[in-house]
Amino acid sequence: MIEILEGRKGQVYEKGKESFNLACEKASLAGSVSQRACVFCGSRVVLYPIADALHLVHGPVGCAAYTWDIRGALSSGPELHRLSFSTDLREEQVIYGGEKKLYSALTELIGFYQPKAAFVYATCIIGLIGDDVQAVCSRVADEQGIPVIPVHSEGFRGTKKDGYKAACEALFRLIGRDDETPVSRLSINILGDFNLAGETWLIKEYYRKMGVEIVSCITGDGRVAEIGRAHRASLNVVQCSGSMTHLAKMMQQRYDIPFKRVSYFGIEDTAEALYTVARHFENPAVLKNTEELVRSEVSRIYPEVKQYRADLCGKRAAIYVGGSFKAFSLVKALRHIGIQTSIVGSQTGNSEDYEYLKEICDEGTIIVDDTNPLELSIYGGEERQSFDRRCQGAAHCL
């Protein structure tokens, strides 16, 4: 029998079995093989989908290999983001510094690919040897005439969540560069959707039908010029709150742009996201368009949902995600098609997130923070036996 590490036991909770007191927002336990990524990886995940920017990893080649094409984010145009560039630091640069190599790499790459901006990711080794990445970026920006932005993402500084913050601070330096392009009063920025499978395009089309202009998508199918005028939108709509709330708060403070947290996972939450935006603008035409859109889409997909429910009723699911906001929606979406969530958790959830998960989950659901594959396999085996006993004699789904 494989035992859970003693230091991890406070990060596991079974609903209905004990009082709720789930430990979270703590450093991963040594030896637990956490699935959390480093600061560098977190920043790369967020910035990577900006398709017309150059992304240069300043460090050993392994860091670039680790995050190459990390999410496969789709682009409707340029695909420069899908190329992985590295300064490939070796022993000589570790001893004498890598600034010359960084300058040379930036100059060559910008000259050849003509990007609209460049991001330079500082990795662990850069934090140790002390390269002045900011100075090199400033010099190249002056010479090349494009924004060259350092991303302070040294991996040892924290966890993936800290990488989100580093990415937001880098993005903030792009915002505010375009005060000329006309922008509607009924306009939004979509924050925290990364267009992994073309979902950003569907969401943009929904808002278009509602009568709402999309100023920028940060960062799915993102463009440097669109991000440059993001400060002129009327509302920020935040999908992945873990990665983008920091940017939304900075924009609220600097540009007085309010933000709303939404989710586009599942029928229920997608409809509520559209209504949230419509209600914000207090525009009768937008609200009417939204009602018609939701009614039409639900009518179109409901027969398919019924079929899936008939096929999947009684099945179980284990959900483990990076940001807990996605878990909320997935629990509800799976319930619509008859699937019960037996295990749910996240890498970066906070106490409020887990309190809400407890409320929406069924009795016996195991809730975990910062878990690993071994634990999930153990909980999955135990939950299977427990679930089978609970389901004996249960009614079939309608």
Task: Give the key terms.
398 residues; alpha/beta; Rossmann fold; 3 domains; 4-stranded parallel β-sheet; 15 helices; globular
Layout: helices, strands, pairs:
Elements: E1 12-14, H1 39-47, E2 53-58, H2 61-66, E3 85-86, H3 91-96, H4 99-113, E4 117-122, H5 124-129, H6 133-144, E5 148-151, H7 160-172, E6 187-191, H8 199-210, E7 213-218, H9 224-228, E8 235-238, H10 241-255, E9 259-261, H11 267-281, H12 284-312, E10 316-321, H13 324-336, E11 340-346, H14 351-360, E12 366-369, H15 373-391
Parallel strand pairs: 2-3, 2-4, 4-5, 6-7, 6-8, 8-9, 10-11, 11-12
Antiparallel strand pairs: 1-12
Report on the structure:
Helices cover about 45% and strands about 15% of the residues. By secondary structure, the protein is α/β, with parallel strands linked by helices. A four-stranded mixed beta sheet has the order 1-12-11-10, with helices on both faces. Strands 3-2-4-5 form a four-stranded parallel beta sheet, with helices on both faces. It folds into three domains: about 5-25 and about 315-390, 3-Layer(aba) Sandwich (Rossmann fold), CATH 3.40.50.1980; about 40-165, Rossmann fold (3-Layer(aba) Sandwich), CATH 3.40.50.1980; about 185-300, 3-Layer(aba) Sandwich (Rossmann fold), CATH 3.40.50. It has 15 helices and twelve strands. The longest helix is centred in the last third of the chain and has 29 residues, at about 285-310. The two termini are about 40 Å apart.
Name of the CATH architecture of the largest domain: 3-Layer(aba) Sandwich
The strands making up the biggest β-sheet line up spatially as 1-12-11-10
Category from helices, strands and their pairing: alpha/beta
User: How does the overall form come out from the CA principal axes?
Assistant: globular
| Proportion of strand residues | 5-15%
> What's the domain count?
3
CATH topology of the largest domain: Rossmann fold
The H-level CATH homologous superfamily of the largest domain, spelled out, is Nitrogenase molybdenum iron protein domain
Largest sheet: 4 strands, mixed
Rg from C-alpha positions? 23 Å
The level-1 CATH class of the largest domain: Alpha Beta
Query: Would you count the extended β strands for me?
Result: 12
Runs in which pLDDT lies below 50 for 5 or more consecutive residues are 387-398
The rounded distance between the terminal residues' Cα atoms is: 39 Å
> How much helical structure, as a percent, in the residues?
40-55%
Please write the string of helix (H) and strand (E) elements: EHEHEHHEHHEHEHEHEHEHHEHEHEH
In round numbers, the mean pLDDT is 92
Helical stretch count?
15
